[in-house]
TrEMBL record:
GO biological process: fatty acid elongation
Residues in AMP-dependent synthetase/ligase domain copies: 113-400
Entry's Gene Ontology molecular function annotations: long-chain fatty acid [acyl-carrier-protein] ligase activity
Gene3D superfamilies cross-referenced by the UniProt entry: N-terminal domain of ligase-like (3.40.50.12780)
Cleavable signal peptide: none
Protein name per the record: Acyl-activating enzyme 16
One GO location term (cellular component): chloroplast
A Pfam family of this chain: AMP-binding
Domain of life: Eukaryota
Subcellular location: Cytoplasm
Species for this entry: Pyrus ussuriensis x Pyrus communis
Broad class of the protein's primary localization: cytoplasm
SUPFAM superfamilies named among the record's database cross-references: Acetyl-CoA synthetase-like (SSF56801)
Length: 426
């Protein structure tokens, strides 16, 4: 990247800022904190103010299209509040040697423990997106930290609501945990909901920005959403070139958020005065972590506030029912904003489980392919699988039918004796 301009502040304040032009965004660095920067575009499709945020002696940026100019205004302001997970980002605290009792005050804290215990084990396998992904626990922790810092760079503040309208994938998990790690509150829903329902959830929750699954979903909702006052949009999958009706809202793709976060984290960790540039606060267990909306079958969906303590209770207690160990395989198929699936996923990652993403259409093939130790689902899916198996058995030859039924009876007897044995151990 090459510097495109160097701007000095007023004579009364001796500060300097430098801007760099990358293919898709402007990256800036400032010699001091407490400035306000304002980016403007002279491109007709994105006229007016694009980006307006306080500067913190580190780096940040804005996604831009071609044909733009930068106008920079500085004024010294008060420090920003930087809220973070106390164990995940404990390097930012004075007490970097947090004791065991200080762990897991917020949901994102689990990633520091999991990365330390299971670092090089594969955490996620997502074969159905482009590009296919296989991520270790160490890589997952770093990606969550980068995404969280990238969200701070583009202006996310503690307690703000960020709508996360996307389906099950590794990037959903990173976005979910990255938003939580900033002290913001994610508002979750899947892509199959109607435009009216998504708009109602966005408005009712007072969301200020949107993370969206794909260009297809964005193009379906853009007419209603891009006219709203919105800080920015994050595209989790796909190319921005596929988007229509972008309006005046800044749009970042997933990689841009990670790049901004990585640059800012590096600058922050290299800085000698990171404690002076911001006011640091830790996320508390009773802070709201997420808003989950009901199905809306009896009216408009209703928002349910879940705190970090709510989710951590599930994470800490599910082991009594599901004794996972490192290397077990977990097949994930329910919508990730489904509370049952979500809590089980968080729990599984604290045990070093390898999670594979699938869908209702692919689950039968993936059961054979991955042979998972655990699968979390709803009764309807199990009934469908059972009916399919029974249909195959009934249409088989007598010998095959006898063999299949014999092994089923042996399996059922084994599970019954295992249950009795485990009860006696309690």
């Amino acid at each position: 990247m090459n510097p495109i301009s160097t701007v000095s502040a007023s004579a009364s304040v001796n500060q300097m800022a430098t801007f760099f032009l990358a293919p898709n965004y402007v990256l800036g660095s400032s010699s001091d904190y407490g400035h306000t920067l304002q980016f403007r575009s002279n491109n007709n499709s994105r006229s007016g103010e694009l980006f307006h945020r306080k500067w913190h002696g580190s780096r940040g940026g804005i996604s831009v299209s071609r044909g733009f100019r930068v106008l920079c205004q500085f004024k010294t302001e008060e420090k920003q509040i930087r809220r973070h997970s106390p164990f995940l980002e404990r390097v930012l605290l004075d007490d970097s040697d947090a004791s065991e009792s200080d762990k897991w005050k917020a949901v994102p804290d689990i990633w520091r423990s999991s990365a330390a215990k299971y670092g090089d084990l594969v955490a996620l396998v997502d074969p159905f997106h482009d590009p296919p992904s296989s991520i270790t626990y160490k890589q997952l922790e770093q990606e969550i930290l980068d995404f969280a810092e990238g969200m701070r760079v583009v202006g996310v503040k503690p307690d703000e609501k960020i709508a996360l309208f996307a389906d099950n994938s590794c990037r959903w998990l990173v976005a979910d945990q990255g938003i939580m790690a900033t002290g913001a509150i994610n508002v979750v829903r899947g892509s199959r909901s109607s435009v009216e329902e998504l708009l109602q959830i966005y408005n009712h929750s007072d969301s200020v920005a949107l993370a969206v699954d794909s260009p297809e979903l964005f193009n379906r909702i853009s007419e209603e959403f891009c006219s709203k006052a919105m800080k920015f949009i994050v595209l989790l999958w796909g190319e921005k070139s596929s988007l229509k009706n972008e309006g005046n809202v800044p749009i970042f793709d997933y990689k841009e958020i990670l790049d901004l976060g990585r640059e800012s984290r590096k600058s922050l960790l290299d800085s000698d005065d990171k404690q002076q540039s911001d006011t640091y606060e830790v996320i508390k267990s009773d802070d709201v972590a997420t808003l989950v909306y009901t199905s809306g079958t009896s009216g408009n969906p209703k928002g349910v506030m879940l705190t970090h303590r709510n989710l951590l209770h599930q994470i800490k207690n599910l082991w009594d029912a599901v004794p996972c160990v490192g290397g077990d395989k977990f097949l994930s198929m329910l919508p990730p904003w489904h509370c049952y699936e979500r809590a089980c996923e968080y729990f599984a990652f604290t045990c070093g489980v390898e999670q594979f993403y699938t869908s209702v259409r692919k689950v039968k093939d993936d059961l054979r392919k991955y042979q998972p130790t655990y699968i979390i689902s709803v009764p309807l899916v199990y009934e469908s699988l059972y009916s399919g198996i029974q249909k195959q058995i009934s249409s088989a030859s007598t010998v095959r039918k006898l063999i299949a039924l014999t092994f089923i009876r042996i399996s059922m007897a084994y599970m019954e004796f295992k249950r009795i044995y485990e009860v006696h151990l309690l």
